[in-house]
UniProtKB/TrEMBL annotation:
Organism: Anoxybacillus flavithermus
PROSITE patterns per UniProt: CYS_MET_METAB_PP (PS00868)
Keyword field: Lyase, Pyridoxal phosphate
This protein's name: Cystathionine gamma-lyase
SUPFAM superfamilies referenced in this protein's UniProt entry, alphabetically: PLP-dependent transferases (SSF53383)
Phylogenetic lineage: Bacteria, Bacillati, Bacillota, Bacilli, Bacillales
């Protein structure tokens, strides 16, 4: 089954009880037992719900994994995955991960004894140099947010296996339409499903896919124990959004290609970050592991003042956090998504005050380019 077909016919199709083409919203908290311990597969909706199960089967299929899990947000998904580890364990993470990931590792999980080191994972030697005796996993974001750095998933996974570590990939920017990390050797894939998978800025959700029965058993135990599940209505919304993921990602890509060409030739723009550019330092790796380069691009306009000017002048780009929706969004990472990262750390990473991130939507590309042109003037 090809990808667009799998997005529509993957997982559980329709409803066997009524013939409904769309999986119903099972708005229910508990289920009748025919006798103590005898039920029809569901006993309580924190443990399992038919609508959520249909979504979990769908993301399992499109990510080519063993089992899928749906959570109430991307951060709930990340938290559940990190609960696989114990006090005293250590995790290596990509240095310019999403600010929320950095925050939970350095402000919350560190208090529970889970240590972390942030390194430039686009250099595999750099990962290996930071492996400690208590390291349990390599956590990769590729492409990264907001600098669109690329890590070789296959290389990092092979390195992790040699050291007995798990490989975890945040696949939010690429989606399974453009990149399938488990096929490249990863053990766990995480999504902020609020973004491209939902695609319409109307649902907050997180998804996880694992590659083995043991990880599935362990993560289901954590999901059921901690309770950060996705409700049935949001599960249904997410499945509806995923049916059009393929055509949306292709259109995002086409619009982004035109905007990147405009930005690279604009005299005010000092640098453009996009893995589809041949000048990107890991363009060859991106071509090897991605079927498309996506709809996210960051660019530097040299100063906070110029960036503020662009943000206040744009008409079709909405100033908002989040990404991956049908409407184009614009943000200033240093003051928004990555504000929780200390200023000196942002400076080390290259997240300057003049760095602007855009999520290219599905509007007419010519309108978006004209909008950026007048905002940059």
């Amino acid at each position: 089954m090809r990808r667009k077909t799998k997005l529509i016919h993957g997982g559980i199709a329709g409803d066997v009880h009524t013939g409904a083409v769309s999986v119903p919203i099972y708005q229910v908290s508990t289920y009748k037992h025919e006798a103590v311990g005898v039920h029809k597969g569901y006993e309580y909706s924190r443990t399992g719900n038919p609508t959520r199960h249909a979504l979990e089967e769908l993301i399992k299929d499109v990510e080519e994994g063993y089992a899928g899990f749906a959570f109430s947000s991307g951060m709930a998904a990340i938290t559940a995955v990190m609960m696989l580890f114990n006090s005293g364990d250590h995790v290596i993470l990509t240095d310019d991960v999403y600010g929320g990931t950095y925050r939970i590792m350095t402000k919350v999980l560190n208090r529970l004894g889970i240590a972390s080191t942030f390194v430039d994972t686009s250099d595999l030697a750099n990962i290996e140099a930071h492996i400690q005796q208590n390291t349990k996993a390599i956590y990769i974001e590729t492409p990264t947010n907001p600098l669109l750095k690329i890590t070789d998933i296959q290389g990092a996974s092979a390195l992790a296996k040699r050291h007995g570590l798990l490989t975890i990939v945040d696949n939010t920017f690429s989606t399974p339409y453009w990149q399938t990390p488990i096929a490249l050797g990863a053990d766990i894939v995480i999504h902020s499903a609020t973004k491209y998978l939902g695609g319409h800025s109307d649902v907050v959700a997180g998804l996880v896919v694992v590659n083995s029965e043991q990880l599935a058993t362990d993560l289901h135990f954590i999901q059921n124990s901690t309770g950060g599940i996705l409700g049935p209505q949001d599960s249904w919304l997410l499945m509806r959004g995923m049916k059009t993921l393929g055509i949306r990602m292709e259109e995002h890509e086409e619009n982004t290609r035109k905007i990147v060409e405009f930005l690279t030739n604009h005299p005010v723009v000092t640098r453009v970050y996009y893995p589809g550019l041949p000048s990107h330092p890991n363009h060859d790796v991106a071509k090897k592991q991605m079927r498309g380069f996506g709809g996210m691009v960051s660019f530097d306009v040299g100063s906070a003042e110029k960036a503020e000017q662009v943000l206040t002048r744009v008409r079709y780009f909405t100033l908002a956090e989040s990404l991956g929706a049908v409407e184009s969004l614009i943000s200033l990472p240093a003051k928004m998504t990555h504000a929780s990262i200390p200023k000196e750390r942002r400076a080390e990473l290259g997240i300057t005050d003049g760095l602007i991130r855009i999520s290219v939507g599905l509007e007419d590309a010519d309108d978006l380019i004209e909008d950026l042109a007048q905002a940059l003037a």
